[in-house]
Amino acid sequence: MEIKLPTFDSVFSIDCVIFGFEAGELKILLIERNEEPFKDWLALPGYIVEQDESIDDAAERILYELTGLRDMHMQQFHTFGEVNRHPQGRVITVAYYALIRINGQKELRPITQYARKAFWHPVNELPKLAFDHSEIFKTAFNKIRRRLHYQPIAFELLPEKFTLTQLQSLYEAVENKKLDKRNFRKKMLSYGFLKELDEKQKGVSYRAAKLYKFDRRKYAKIFHNDMNIDK
Amino acid sequence: MEIKLPTFDSVFSIDCVIFGFEAGELKILLIERNEEPFKDWLALPGYIVEQDESIDDAAERILYELTGLRDMHMQQFHTFGEVNRHPQGRVITVAYYALIRINGQKELRPITQYARKAFWHPVNELPKLAFDHSEIFKTAFNKIRRRLHYQPIAFELLPEKFTLTQLQSLYEAVENKKLDKRNFRKKMLSYGFLKELDEKQKGVSYRAAKLYKFDRRKYAKIFHNDMNIDK
DNA sequence: TTTAATGGTGTAATTTTCACACACTATCTT
DNA sequence: AAGATAGTGTGTGAAAATTACACCATTAAA
pLDDT tens digit string along B37-63? Predict the structure, then answer.
């Protein structure tokens, strides 16, 4: 049986690619759609922008309604405007990404009925997603892979207190290659924006590692206006 | 006398920031508006996207209609979606940039009546522009300033055959600082994607400089996967 | 006490970046 | 034809950054 769907004219929407890091793996947030078209498919959290909200506000609201996550600091990264990207009409979508700490997040629970559930999925072996969301994801992943090198985005994915090994394994996951431990540490510490804490890791069954914190103020001082241009 | 204007609901538009390089100066293309709102103001070339064209296609078409320029290779760089950025209604605009060779361009002549004329204006000392176009320009300028370092965009601004001094002065204009001639040449040539021609500059009243060409094929070979990561 | 697992550390070789100055050549002027 | 002008073209040494590389230390569990 074919389902008859309403059509509409020009609509803006927002789609969100939310990255998290857990168990040495990079993950993104997906929802299971509970609405046609693409009912039951997996998709990026996304919905339609209202008349009286800026697109940045819309992004925050939509992510909240679909996943229960709030106060995310999202960055717009690309707008997708092919004519037939949405089967019901002309929908141009502005895509945002965010990087967040998975641990310490409350349970994910959609507020609206448009999503049946929301969950984390490793970026390797993603299934086919609704609409052009696979392409949107790919674009986002390329962006953050590059930005990792000249913006302090790694620290948004890690817990507030982290070990150098955790930091390194995040870089390794994003770049998909092994790095030398001594050189990595030497370089990271040489920047001078990591604050060594008195605390150590707890509950591990091996030598506990020192914990560090990212010092945003020092970072800003060091790379003031101009983050390092070609690093 | 106040002019009564129609209002509208959600509309997408495109705005273009077209950079060119001439006489050692970086310039952008502006139009003089011939339509309310902001009649008689200077603005970036921009207009409304049609239902049945992708935003990339719309960008090409709109630029052509307002300036007579065609087949530009434009890159989307940001979408501006504040609620009140347009006085007549909700307009979200996708901004594109392009880099072109000013010389060798035909005269600029708007096709539609929405622009009275189109012309090049140095990026230093820009006047206040219509809508939020000053902000759009600023965002574009920051983007290309950064991209100059990891994408071969300089060669789109120069004539096909150029001297190393011209190339250097372009970098100096964008970065707004002097570079060392010897180091600049050494580094540029070391990349191996500049092809030295047998020709020399003509018509200059001093020792003529060698001409070079950008070898796109060699460039692609050298920086294979890595060059166009976010194109 | 042994084992398993990870934390933590330094040095030398190589490569890259940077600072720096002067002679050459084509044209124009007188 | 001599000189002025204006931009072209070239090399070296010092400093900084990057890379390659291996072993002992600490903790908890067995």
Answer: 999 999 999 999 999 999 999 999 999
Q: How many CB pairs under 8 A join A and B?
A: 63
Q: pTM for the full model?
A: 0.91
B160-222 CATH: 1.10.10.10
| Residue B222: partners with Cβ closer than 8 Å, 6 or more residues away | B191, B192, B193
Min Cα separation A11/chain B (Å): 7
Please give the DSSP secondary-structure letter assigned to residue B125.
Answer: T
Domains A8-147 and A159-222 share a fold: no
CA A222 to C1' C3, whole Å? 45
Report ipTM for this prediction: 0.89
Chain-chain contact of B54 with A9 (C-beta, under 8 angstroms): no
Average pLDDT over residues A184-191: 96
Q: What CA–CA distance (Å, rounded) separates B3 from A177?
A: 63
- Residue B169 near residue B154 (C-beta atoms within 8 A): no
Among protein residues, the one whose C-alpha sits closest to the C1' atom of D4 is B206
Nucleotide nearest to B210 (CA to C1'): D8
Q: Which of A29-33, B116-120, B180-184, B204-208 has the lowest mean pLDDT?
A: B204-208
Q: What confidence tier does A159 reach under pLDDT thresholds 50, 70, 90?
A: very high
Q: State the average pLDDT for chain B.
A: 90
CATH of B10-147, one of 3.90.79.10, 3.30.420.140, 1.10.3730.10, 1.10.10.10: 3.90.79.10
Cross-chain residue pair A79–B79, CB shorter than 8 Å: yes
Residues B39/A68, Cβ–Cβ less than 8 Å: no
> What does the angle CA B99 – CA B155 – CA B23 come to, to the nearest 5 degrees?
75
Contact B231, A143 (CB under 8 A): no
Q: What are the structural domain ranges in chain B?
A: 10-147, 160-222
Query: Do the chains contact at B11 and A11, CB–CB below 8 Å?
Result: no
**Would you tell me which CATH number, out of the four given (2.60.120.200, 1.10.8.640, 3.40.640.10, 1.10.10.10), belongs to the domain A159-222?**
1.10.10.10
Q: How many Å does it take to go from CA A187 to C1' D25?
A: 23
Average pLDDT over residues B132-152: 94
**pLDDT tens track for B24-40:** 889 999 999 999 899 99
Please choose, from the candidates B129, B133, B174, the residue with its C-alpha nearest in 3D space to the C-alpha of residue B26: B174
Segment B13-34 mean pLDDT:
94
How far, in Å, is the CA of B205 from the C1' of nucleotide C28? 7
pLDDT in tens, A116-150: 999 999 999 999 999 999 999 999 999 999 999 88
Does domain A8-147 correspond to CATH entry 3.40.50.1980?
Answer: no
